Amino acid sequence: MRSATFQAREVVHNKKEKNSFDLYSQLWLVMKTRIIVSGLGRTGYKIYTLLRQQRADVVGISDRPISVSPTEKIIIGNSTSATTLINAGIKEAQTLILAHNDDALNLAILTQARLINPRVRIINRLFNQTLGERLDQTLPDHFTMSVASLSAPIFTFAALGSAAIGQLKLFNQTWPIHEEIIDQDHPWLGKSLKELWNNPSRMLIYYLPTEGEIDLVSAVIKGKTLQPGDHLIIGTKPTIRYQRRSYWQKVVKAVTNLPQYQRYARSVAVVSLFLLLMIFLATLTYVSVSFNTSIVDALYFSVGMITGAGGQEQVAEKAPDGIKIFTTVMMLVGAGVIGICYALINDFILGSRLKQAWDAARVPTHHHHIVCGLGGIGIQIVRQLHQQGHEVVVIDSDPNNRFLHTARSLGVPVIIEDGSLNATLKAVNCDRAVSLIAVTSNDMINLEIALTAKALAPQIATIVRSYDPQFAQSMQEVFEFDRVLSPIELSTHSFVAAALGGRILGNGMTQDLLWVALATMITAKHPFCGMKIQDAAMKADFVPLYLERNGHTIHSWDLLKTLLTPEDILYLTMPASNLEQLWRTPPSEELVFH
User: Around Cβ 274, how many Cβ atoms within 10 Å?
Assistant: First the structure.
């Protein structure tokens, strides 16, 4: 009996002869699991389509009529209604995916679904990740997923020069995943897979040879070499820059960037200068009229007279009438100037202008990354770049953005301006930046920002967010940006993988084959218990990444020869269509996913 993976590969590459039986029908039997997708918006319908593509038994719920093929199972109705959920099969369902873009609506559906079927697994799309973490801790079989957190690492990797197709969480780090297609000019052409396997900074995840059918572990053991047309999916260990500026370097940079204060402190500076000129003019006038008045007394009287504090009135009491009229005018004008000056200083210090001026003074001068748009994806990108030791500056037009404090608490300068303006990009030294990442919620604004940046600095790497996956592809081809990425396209595979295989550490898709990375605990009655990892891998067509045993990790060649024992945690990758064999144990002995 052929494995499900082997069948999927036949379909992907279309290499084998067509048989009387339908391969897809066989995969349907393997993946026979009722999954309900509630919310068929752009994200939800993409998840629904991918699940159908993987031959899962999936039902969709939409609150409005949509055009679908006759073979698609779509229920039209209110997802919070018990009747709608029952019609969709919630009583027998194993998994419910809540894909609405409204957290409150997802929570309302969650509570109704759990009342009907307390055992149903919930995969919940939430924008509020803090709430999601609380729900994960409180509710059994509840998994929070966020489009922003799933897609942000790909934007980060793109800014750092990696053409990542996915991400993988290994060794408490997020590794970028990319696909190597071997051609005649590829440096790995003719290189042995055994050599690539033994590199600790690289994880071989999946292998699709151009000729024949062989799993990755068998190919490594047999010393197979890479040939033109081979596809290899690889995870690469991220590099961390530990260099941080010292306190004095930050001070020097702030002093160097003093001209940046002008745009925020110009009004305060102008009014203050006018006030000083008034005091100087009054002091000079009183000294010139009465040579018996000292400069100090004249200055003291001028300041007291203009500010209204009083003092040394005798300077003007015995002066001519013209000086008294001059004093009266100065008192009236001074009262207005002092009022304006106090108001501007108060607004500058207690308002947001001082923070903006300080942020402007801390803008990096070179080799930094510019993030335009401080939304859910933007703040994730800022965190990741900052954690990896890179200098970042943020541009956002909303002074009330909820992530402003978070970004500034990381020491990242935030410029509250329109990122599509030349002046704004010049102020953040766009011409000397490494990359510009435009991730506002508006595709047209992102396009305008990226075009403006390219006009100012043709060499800068531009990574652009597009809500529409089709528009993203055409935008990249027409405007030749470095990467145009759609969060929906980047994140939906993770929802599908989670629906098919428990808690997922990473996933990716090559052609039509969805593979997932997961951590699984070996139990005493597990089908792989007592087997060598290499034998289990060749039998089930999975790729072992590393083994966790008693707090220690085993990888590379030692990993393949290791016998699996109870309480081992094995990290592996395998096709989603092959996950069914991990569920064949009784519920009490089922694998524990981490």
Answer: 13
Provide the token pair at 536: 């289990």
Distance CA 4, CA 2 (A): 7
- 539 inside domain: no
In a domain, 169, yes or no: no
Neighbours of 574 (CB within 10 A): 25
pLDDT of residue 465: 95
Range of the domain at 312: 258-355
For residue 41, give every residue at least 6 positions away whose Cβ sits within 8 Å of its Cβ, in sequence order, or none: 99, 100, 101
Task: Give the residue from 235, 197, 155, 123 showing the smallest Cα distance to 507.
Answer: 235
Measure CA of the first residue to CA of the last residue in the chain; give whole Å: 31
Q: What is the pLDDT of residue 540?
A: 83
**How many domains is the chain partitioned into structurally?**
2
Within-domain flag for 373: no
**CATH number of the domain that residue 137 is part of:** 3.40.50.720
Phi, psi angles (nearest 5°) of residue 200: -70, -20
Distance between CA atoms of 219 and 538, rounded to whole angstroms?
A: 10
Among the three residues 339, 355, 371, which one is the final residue of a domain in this structure? 355
Beta-carbon contacts of residue 267 (< 8 Å; ≥ 6 apart): 344
Q: In terms of Cα–Cα distance, which of 292, 287, 291 is closest to 302?
A: 287
Reading across the β-sheet that carries 121-125, which strands appear in turn? 74-76, 57-62, 34-38, 95-98, 121-125, 142-145
Kindly tell me the sign of the dihedral angle through the C-alpha atoms of 403, 409, 410, 414: positive
Q: Which two tokens stand for residue 47?
A: 């998840």
Question: What is the rounded CA–CA span in Å between residue 344 and residue 266?
Answer: 10
The whole-angstrom separation of Cα 507 and Cα 514 is 7
CA gap 164, 175 in Å, rounded = 9
Is the torsion defined by CA of 568, 572, 575, 576 positive or negative? positive
| Phi, psi angles (nearest 5°) of residue 69 | -75, 160
Which residues make Cβ contacts (< 8 Å) with residue 156, sequence separation at least 6? 380, 381, 384, 385, 388
- What residues of the chain score a pLDDT lower than 70? 1-33, 240-265, 291, 309-319, 347-361, 501-503, 508-514, 577-594
Place of tokens 């002092």: 338
**Residue type present at position 50:** L
**Which of 152, 148, 151, 146 has its CA nearest to residue 131?**
146
Radius of gyration of the chain (CA): 33
Q: What pLDDT shows up at residue 502?
A: 54
With beta carbons less than 8 A apart as the criterion, state whether 200 and 208 touch. no
Phi, psi of 173 (to 5 degrees): -135, 160
| DSSP character at residue 64 | S
Dihedral angle computed from the Cα positions of residues 185, 188, 190 and 194, in that order, rounded to the nearest 10 degrees: -170
